[in-house]
Amino acid sequence: MESAVNKQLGFDPSTVKRLTALEILKRIGPGIILAGVVVGPGAITTAAMLGSSYGYHMLWLFIPIFIMSITFMLTCYRLAMLTGMPLLHGIRHYYGHGAAAFVGICLFFSCLFFTFGNISGSGAGMSLLFGVDWKIGALIMLALLLGLYFSKDTYSKIEKGVMVCILGMILAFYATLYASGGPDPQGFILGLTHWGFPEGSVLGSLAFLSTHASITAGIYGTYLGAEKKWKKQDLFNGTMLSDACAHVLTVILISGAIVTVGAIVLHPTGLTISSPVQMAGMLEPVLGSKARFVMGAALLGSAFSALMGNTQRGVVLLNAGLGWEVGLESRRVRWSCVACLLLGVIVCFAYSGSPTQLIFLANLATSIGTPTAGLFVTLMIWRKDVQAGLKPLRLLQLTMTLCYLFTTALTLYSFGARFL
């Protein structure tokens, strides 16, 4: 058995040395980029609305978010390393060109519509910070983004840029949390331990779950891992587990702060919000004149980091599904990103910058793409010929199956509640 494993992997897993904390920090990175993609303007809006509408009652959602997110990430990473192929390439290998193309196209449209909302969000952030027209602000940020796309060492620059944006978001929301006096300990603990849906909260909660725990992040992470030059040894030396944990904890750290701020500041007043920009005005009693700058920095950071990662994510997944180039510095990927951004500008300007309908379309596209991609990922993790001779991780297989069924059921319920 051991010789068969060594032959398929090219090394003996038992001899792989566990990396030190400093060595792991140098190896991780895709999970941070993916966190920047997840925490965009739509996620900020949903998180703030949950806190303002239901107080601490929906904090328990972060527990299934953690379980689902870590499961999706680890499953995708493991499959990519064992097969030696990123996920859509693996789907093509085991299930054919048609399956890979269909999944790639579905995931592309899901990402494309979120790009539209991110363009509006970046313009809104510039408007809050500098008082410029949101359209001018959006164009300035897109020009900066294009400079990053066409520079050398694209992956490294985007990784560093997303980290800066994430730090900005963390500082902004935790500064607000500190200024508001912090959460009520009893209410906070009850929100984590008492699970349930207050009246009218089901659809918003489902949207929150689907945004924060998406298998699309794990699939794209396998392509970012290739850009990071990950090797099969990284499956055994602690790199991939650490990267997955960094992704999930960063998302929870940011969104958890937003929900808590909404619960502390907005819920007692009975006020609700429909866009992240409105949150700046509602925070004025706590932060005064600094509210617009704090929210502007957070909104700009979330929108720009999501733009950097999400536009490329959609193009890479489309190209992977169709069997085209997927390198971030390839001409096809770069110019396809430009085309998506130009389309996004046209759509956003035509809709006067309102992301509401765009976010709805994104959720509709996700309702098609996520269950489809998740089906093939679930099937692959159960295949004996994928395990490279290793003993299957039954807990991961079972958890992946349950999370997929749960996510699909929530998607179907949400879709039916909207249209039936």
UniProtKB/TrEMBL annotation:
Keywords carried by this UniProt record: Membrane, Transmembrane, Transmembrane helix, Transport
Gene Ontology CC terms: plasma membrane
Cell compartment(s), UniProt: Membrane
Any one GO molecular function term: manganese ion transmembrane transporter activity
Pfam family, one: Nramp
InterPro entries: NRAMP_fam
Protein name, per record: Putative transporter
Organism: Acidaminococcus fermentans (strain ATCC 25085 / DSM 20731 / CCUG 9996 / CIP 106432 / VR4)
